């Protein structure tokens, strides 16, 4: 019990709420800075691709969005594991706050993938291994959000959702490899997404955009977790004090 | 034998109770009382280990029930407000199946004897869906006749029983206490249990 | 350890035998869904042969989904689930028994009737044999993974739809390798590799899924 005491205090909503509030503007500002730099590099500096023309520039959105969609799922699973192991209240709220952003990233990645596919392959959708896996990842996000939304008791929602996330994380590699294997069997290797000779400016542009998306995700997740905290703890003294302060 | 310290229960947004504790020794009965929604059933579910307390600890024979859960469950008999009988099975099959799944030795003769005691002689081979509500409750209670586990936890055991059955059940619980058993139960009607020390715990 | 698993299997089979209508309707659902496809796409044998593995597998997934919501719901409603959770064994073993019993009444009948439906799709010899073997080997994994979803959605509104949303994405590997085994056999590549992967998935999910389901059940019982 003693060693848990600190963790509880650290993860207590009353302490975390103001901390998150202070942090949000910083993360948002950093996201904007990275975004400007990344878009500048990607849109203006990076050379036109000799095969794909200007259309390829959508990868500056597409690739970071795909990275973030996978990364956010891992972060959610991490919070889920912490929540199930230590029974901390904050972890479940963090996982729930991240889910819509993760789903948005997965959707963005599919959408930009389709936009990219039209000029490159002449079709909006191909059953490419990565696109298919991304679609399944979107299903997993939607399943998580539907499950947590269907459970009225927030603590049970956190725990059940957490368990689903852990099951999902175990299954993602299996799903990914089976889809990849299925794809090579059915399609041959006519479609190759990655161009081996990627200009360094392109790489930097993508990394900057990935940082931008990362910071954006943190800022948005913190905003959402603050809302969740207020909603769940609306009867706690600190929330009442907080709301009274806002009214004045 | 059974001790609880500083228990706290939060359901949804409400704190039902906090700082609750009790101690129960062999041969003692604990009555949980309180109005609807005071947390009686929640406390029972904490005692049987299905609901983890927000704070505090429950110990059986000095060991935390959450840490030694299998040893604890081997000493526990729980009767909830649901009958836990299968409509498709006959009373006899229900008794045998539940004993079997709980890892208890129960012979067919013992089971028949128990059913006779609860007044279901002649109905052993009729699927439970054809029984009345009261009769189904009796099938559930028949489990207690041959039950020798030391800790009984009973949720509203006297509900929906006629006077004769209430007396009979009070007798069964007394017998259990006389053998050195412990019992925890919730009830609205206070029924006199002839034997054993009765403790009361009021939840408000 | 085996004793409790067998006790649960025995009880669940006895219950299923007294409610045979459920087994039969899931089986007919499978037959009807499979039979609708030729009506929708036309009777060309070449096309049907190519579609057969996928159609049969998707229908098998859906037929399994049909019986999943009741896997724990009946026991939950009448209070027996609490008693099972309070029995002095790990709950995971009880769930293992329930998963095996579920497979015996849902997956096994599908595998037995699959060759007949395969014939409708112009599969022959090896193709039919591998189809049956694949469904036999793959459906236990469906019951296992499905148990996790059934436990997570226990007692929720709209549980059945939610269950499909959670479970169907996790079924994709089984679908890919199950249908792939038949495909590979029909095209002369040999389906042994797929069948062994299916078997591996089944063993992994039978080892892992009951414990995850047990954890989910404990959450639902709080």
Automatic annotation (TrEMBL), chain A:
Pfam family, one: Cytochrom_C_asm
Membrane topology: Multi-pass membrane protein
Gene Ontology molecular function, alphabetical: heme binding; heme transmembrane transporter activity
Keywords of the record: Cell inner membrane, Cell membrane, Cytochrome c-type biogenesis, Membrane, Transmembrane, Transmembrane helix, Transport
Location of this chain's protein in the cell: Cell inner membrane; Membrane
GO cellular component, one term: plasma membrane
InterPro entries reported for this sequence: Cyt_c_assembly, Cyt_c_biogenesis_CcmC, Cyt_c_biogenesis_CcsA/CcmC
Regions crossing the membrane: 21-45, 65-86, 98-117, 129-151, 163-182, 202-225
Cytochrome c assembly protein domain span: 28-186
Source species, domain of life: Bacteria
Family: Belongs to the CcmC/CycZ/HelC family.
Main function: Required for the export of heme to the periplasm for the biogenesis of c-type cytochromes.
Name of the protein: Heme exporter protein C
TrEMBL record, chain B:
A single GO molecular function term of this UniProt record: ATP hydrolysis activity
Assigned keywords, A-Z: ATP-binding, Cell membrane, Cytochrome c-type biogenesis, Membrane, Nucleotide-binding, Translocase, Transport
PROSITE patterns, per the entry: ABC_TRANSPORTER_1 (PS00211), ABC_TRANSPORTER_2 (PS50893)
Classification via Pfam families: ABC_tran (PF00005)
Gene3D superfamilies, sorted: P-loop containing nucleotide triphosphate hydrolases
Residues annotated as domain ABC transporter: 2-203
Protein name: Cytochrome c biogenesis heme-transporting ATPase CcmA
UniProt organism field: Dechloromonas agitata
Name of the gene this protein is made from: ccmA
UniProtKB/TrEMBL annotation, chain C:
GO MF terms held by the record: heme transmembrane transporter activity
Entry's transmembrane regions: 21-42, 54-72, 93-117, 129-154, 161-182, 194-217
Compartments, as annotated in UniProt: Cell inner membrane
Membrane topology value: Multi-pass membrane protein
Primary location class: membrane
GO BP annotation list: cytochrome c biosynthetic process; cytochrome complex assembly
Keywords recorded for this protein, A-Z: Cell inner membrane, Cell membrane, Cytochrome c-type biogenesis, Membrane, Transmembrane, Transmembrane helix, Transport
GO CC list: plasma membrane
InterPro entries: Cyt_c_biogenesis_CcmB (IPR003544), Cyt_c_CcmB_bac (IPR026031)
Family: Belongs to the CcmB/CycW/HelB family.
Protein purpose: Required for the export of heme to the periplasm for the biogenesis of c-type cytochromes.
Protein name per Swiss-Prot or TrEMBL: Heme exporter protein B
Lineage of producing organism: Bacteria, Pseudomonadati, Pseudomonadota, Betaproteobacteria, Rhodocyclales
Gene designation: ccmB
């Amino acid at each position: 019990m003693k060693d848990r005491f600190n963790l509880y205090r650290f993860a207590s909503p009353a302490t975390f709420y103001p901390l998150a509030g202070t942090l949000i503007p910083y993360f948002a500002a950093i996201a904007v800075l990275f975004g400007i730099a990344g878009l500048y590099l990607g849109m203006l500096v990076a050379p036109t691709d000799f095969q794909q023309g200007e259309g390829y520039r959508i990868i500056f959105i597409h690739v970071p969005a795909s990275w973030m969609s996978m990364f956010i799922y891992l972060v959610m699973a991490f919070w889920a594991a912490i929540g199930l192991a230590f029974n901390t209240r904050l972890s479940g709220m963090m996982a729930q706050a991240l889910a819509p952003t993760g789903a948005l990233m997965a959707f963005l990645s599919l959408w930009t993938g389709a936009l990219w596919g039209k000029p490159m392959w002449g079709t909006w959708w191909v059953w490419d291994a990565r696109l298919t896996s991304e679609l399944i990842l979107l299903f997993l996000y939607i399943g998580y959000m539907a499950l947590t939304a269907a459970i009225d008791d927030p603590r049970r929602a956190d725990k059940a959702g957490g368990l689903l996330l852990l099951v999902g994380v175990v299954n993602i590699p299996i799903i990914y490899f089976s889809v990849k294997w299925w794809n090579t069997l059915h399609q041959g290797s006519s479609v190759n997404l990655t161009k081996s000779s990627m200009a360094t400016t392109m790489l930097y542009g993508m990394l900057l955009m990935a940082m931008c998306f990362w910071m954006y995700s943190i800022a948005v997740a913190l905003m959402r977790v603050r809302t969740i905290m207020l909603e769940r703890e609306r009867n706690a003294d600190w929330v009442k004090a907080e709301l009274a302060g806002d009214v004045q | 034998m059974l001790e609880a310290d500083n228990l706290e229960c939060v359901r949804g947004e409400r704190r039902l109770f906090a700082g609750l504790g009790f101690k129960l020794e062999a041969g003692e009965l604990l009555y949980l009382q309180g109005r609807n929604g005071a947390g009686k059933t929640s406390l029972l579910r904490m005692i049987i280990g299905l609901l983890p307390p927000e704070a505090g600890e429950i110990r059986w024979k000095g060991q935390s029930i959450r840490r030694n859960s299998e040893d604890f469950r081997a000493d526990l008999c729980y009767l909830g407000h649901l009958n836990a009988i299968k409509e498709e099975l006959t009373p006899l099959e229900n008794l045998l199946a539940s004993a079997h799944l709980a890892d208890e030795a129960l012979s067919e003769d013992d089971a028949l004897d128990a059913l006779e005691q609860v007044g279901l002689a002649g109905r052993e081979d009729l699927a439970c869906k054809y029984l009345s509500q009261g009769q189904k409750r009796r099938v559930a209670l028949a489990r207690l006749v041959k039950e020798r586990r030391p800790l009984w936890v009973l949720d509203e055991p006297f509900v929906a029983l006629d006077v004769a059955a209430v007396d009979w059940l009070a007798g069964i619980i007394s017998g259990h206490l006389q053998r050195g058993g412990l019992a925890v139960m919730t009830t609205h009607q206070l029924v006199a249990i002839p034997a054993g020390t009765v403790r009361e715990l009021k939840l408000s | 350890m085996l004793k409790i698993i067998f006790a649960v299997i025995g009880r669940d089979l006895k219950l299923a035998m007294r409610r045979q209508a459920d087994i039969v309707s899931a089986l007919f659902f499978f037959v009807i869904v499979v039979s609708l496809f030729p009506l929708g796409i036309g009777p060309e044998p070449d096309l049907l042969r190519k579609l057969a593995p996928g159609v049969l597998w998707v229908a098998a997934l859906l037929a399994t989904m049909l019986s999943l919501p009741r896997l724990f719901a009946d026991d939950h409603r009448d209070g027996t689930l609490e008693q099972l959770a309070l029995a002095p064994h790990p709950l995971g073993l009880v769930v293992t028994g329930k998963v095996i019993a579920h497979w015996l009444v849902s997956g096994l009948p599908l595998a037995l009737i699959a060759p007949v439906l395969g014939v409708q799709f112009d599969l022959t010899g090896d193709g039919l044999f591998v189809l049956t073997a694949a469904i036999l080997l793959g459906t236990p994994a469906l019951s296992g993974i499905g148990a996790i979803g059934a436990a997570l959605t226990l007692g929720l509104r709209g549980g059945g739809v939610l269950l499909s949303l959670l479970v169907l994405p996790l079924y994709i590997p089984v679908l890919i390798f199950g249908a792939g085994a038949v495909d590979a056999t029909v095209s002369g590549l040999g389906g042994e590799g797929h069948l062994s992967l299916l078997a591996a998935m089944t063993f992994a999910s039978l080892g892992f899924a009951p414990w995850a389901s047990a954890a989910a059940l404990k959450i639902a019982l709080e």
